[in-house]
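Appendix B. Chain record.
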Amino acid sequence: MARYAMVIDLESCVGCSACAAACVLENEVPPGHNRLWIRQRELGVFPELTVEYRPEQCLHCENPPCVPACPTGASYKNEDGLVLVRYERCIACGACVAACPYDARFMNPAGYVDKCTFCEHRIADGLDPACVETCPTGCRVFGDLDDPTSAVREALAKAGRIDVLRPEMGTEPKLFYLNTPSKRGLNDTEEVQQ
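Structure tokens predicted for this chain:
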């Protein structure tokens, strides 16, 4: 058993959207929908301005509010800590979509709720998620939090700053943002690049 997590170093992310494109291709995400998207915000005051790009997706929470909200058990957490959907059990009621505080789920036109799976099918084959493999700057790292020698543990240990989205929700996300410029604004919902 593992406890999978992902870290994204915001100092290295250039907002190229290669991760989002890889996700769409790998997972056959329907047009007009995204399992992964990029938020963009301006930081500072002119002439000292910079832009932060923040990829967002399902955070595969330790305490996922979407799972108990599901009336059929379609939403569940597997033994490796991944939060997943059994599509054949989903009745498309949207309860889990409403319960997710990160807007990380969507209604697939095929009639079920869809979301990031950390490319579970690739993990089963010993591969990284498509977004990690594709990132040209290497800002994404994936691995087992329970393995002290994993790349994800190493990245967390070396980070100058570690943040998660909406920590006050108590969901204990397993997607960590490294080296965020400031705590202020981490939960902002500025322009979304798709």
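Further analysis of this model is presented in Appendix C.
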